Amino acid sequence: MLIVEIVFTGLLMGSFYALMALGLTLVFGILKIVNFAHGEFFMIGAYAYTLLVVWAGLPQVPAMLSAVALGALAGVLMERLLMRPLYTGVIGPGALRDEYAIIVTFGLSLFLINLSHQVLGPYPVKGPDLVAVSRMELFGMFVSPHRLLASGLAVLTLALIVWLIRTTVWGKRVQAVAQNRFGAAIAGIDHARVSALVLALSGGIVALSGALLSPLFHAYPDVGAFPAVKSFVVVVLGGMGSIPGSILGGLLLGVLENFGAIYISYEYRDTFGFIILMLVLLLRPQGLFGERAREV
Amino acid sequence: MRRIALSPADHRLAFAVLGVVALIPLGVRSEYWLGVLITGLYFAMLAQSWNLLAGIAGLFSMAPAAFAMVGAYTTGLLHHHLQIGPGVGVPAGAVVAAAVGFGLGRITLRLRGAYLALTTLAFSEILRLVIANSIEWTRGDLGLSVPGILGGAKVPILYLFLGVLAAYQALLLLLLRSRVGLFLLAIRDDEVGAVARGVDLVRYKTLAFTLSAAGCGVAGALFVHFLQLASPELGLILQTGLVISMVVIGGMGTATGPLVGALLVEVAAEALREVGVRHLLVFSALVILVGRFFREGLMGLLARLAPGARLVARPASDAERLA
After folding, report:
1. Which residues in chain A are closer than 8 Å to B285, comparing Cβ atoms?
2. Residue A118: its chain B contacts at CB < 8 A?
3. CA gap B232, B237 in Å, rounded
4. What is the C-alpha to C-alpha distance for residues B202 and B200, in angstroms, rounded to an integer?
5. C or N terminus of chain B, fewer CB within 10 Å?
6. Which of chain A's residues have a Cβ under 8 Å away from the Cβ of B107?
7. Is the dihedral of CA A290, A294, B4, B10 positive or negative?
8. Yes or no, beta carbons of A34 and B122 under 8 Å apart
9. Is the Cβ–Cβ distance between B247 and B257 less than 8 Å?
10. B55 to chain A nearest CA, in Å?
């Protein structure tokens, strides 16, 4: 019974890891960069949802939709203002590109964290639950209905995004640009717009995670650190740029962390993810599902 | 390519900056500002060490603060458990940090760009969490209290920091003016090309990692004897962020940039604190602007304003800049 419970609660958390990592992996797929400001989309979503409900008195659902819209807007702005040089040829090739991306996204992350510190202060604000009941029994396990509902929404969103990417015209454009930006441009795809779309998607779904998880983790300036780290771990584990990799990797990390916290050490639970990250990068850099690629 | 190489004028300017800093205690008597300056010199040491790795060898590490923490805790633990003083503790801090740097450099040899950044980030967080959680050994977040040096007098401590920094700067000068410097620049600009020309990649990448870690280790060990406290906060990613900001603002890959960046940022941070603005808010905005619009930082700006000074060995032509 205990094992079932560990797996189940691990999967509940894992569904969020999967959603957040999907956002990161989409951006990696299309821009070939790691977005170090990824966690700040989460912070934006958590704050937008929480403050709109607590301060502005909006009902939960419109507040959540606004949070998603704000995250998407942040993504579009980021693409327009900072990511454009990556593919307009201003930066130069290879290592310079990587360096530019790390400096600018890491700088953006520090900027957003400190901006919210400056404007909103360091105090955490608890996000409102979607459901009034605080706990319920499910097959002999006690779970929070909010978490159950939130995970359900996370899984639905995952399915929606996968469907969008796999079947719609816009999704196919995204796939094309991810495979070959120049080829896609020659085929008449506006790759800058596709990149903006992907950053909007990424910002939107991570902001949604932030809003859904705000009752658990609250909204405060540094809240983005943990989702960013989990997304890095999951994306590396599943293979950079791989969509199934990030989904399975997210679920796997949720369950592994739960087992680690209970059977190995609760104090060191935060280190497991980092250890997985280092081991995968050192032993199997392409991850579980990534394609092996050599840079020339 | 945009890259600028280090010029003799750049090296001379770096020592001139250190000379100017040496004159400051003659005019400034405020204990508070001397303390700020000492902190600035600590960061200058970290910035210079990180610049060797990221700016010159092109290995974007996210672990400078972690290596400073290694140095700090080496001397801290030696004092706490064995009552060994800073005379042994500080050199030991450098050696242990160098050894850890050597190990990390060895295992991350084939990683580049974002992969290297993520691995070093994970390494530095694991280290910090282990130190913060090994309460029976390190007293966790409370930190270890360590003895002060030179009777806690600010001026002698400042000259000690300055002397160590000047020695490190001289070591870098010798290294960078030799073939090794050219090898490191070659690895940064074109790794495959460098290997094809016979540069021993394993050897020089590891060397850069080891030397950089040693510099951070000395800085961290000295700094905790100034603070009289070694705490896991020294290894926060935020500290690494500050170091990266300083180097990017000053000018990556130059000799003077990291020094000027570190000192200016630290002094400006204090000034901003008085106005009530979070210093990282301003510096991170500057980092984004520098990264986006003029990537050579302050040094690049200076080189453009005073082309006669030949701060840049090979200035990028306009055509290259636009290419």
Report:
1. 107, 111
2. 277-278, 281
3. 11
4. 6
5. C
6. 282
7. positive
8. no
9. yes
10. 10
Residue A267 CA to residue A265 CA, distance in Å, equals 6
A260-263 contacts: CB < 8 A, separation 24 or more? Answer: A262/A6
Task: List C-alpha distances in Å: A101 to A82, A84, B60, B94, B101.
Answer: 9, 11, 11, 32, 25
What's this model's pTM, rounded to 2 decimal places? 0.89
- The neighbour count for residue A80, using CB atoms within 10 Å, is 13
> 3-state SS string over A178-206?
HHCHHHHHHCCCCHHHHHHHHHHHHHHHH
Burial of B271 (0-12, 13-18, 19+ CB in 10 A): exposed
pLDDT in tens, chain A (296 residues): 588 888 988 999 999 999 999 999 999 988 888 999 999 999 999 999 999 999 998 898 999 999 999 999 999 999 999 998 888 766 666 677 888 899 999 999 999 999 999 999 889 988 888 877 777 777 777 778 888 899 999 999 999 999 999 999 999 999 999 988 888 989 999 989 999 999 999 999 999 999 999 998 999 998 988 889 889 989 888 888 889 999 999 999 999 888 888 888 777 777 888 888 888 888 887 777 766 554 43
Contact criterion met (CB < 8 Å) for A114 and B291: no
Say what the ipTM of the complex is: 0.87
Which of A99, A117, A277 is opposite residue B278, by nearest beta carbon? A117
Compute the CA torsion angle A253, A256, A259, A261 (nearest 10 deg). Answer: -50
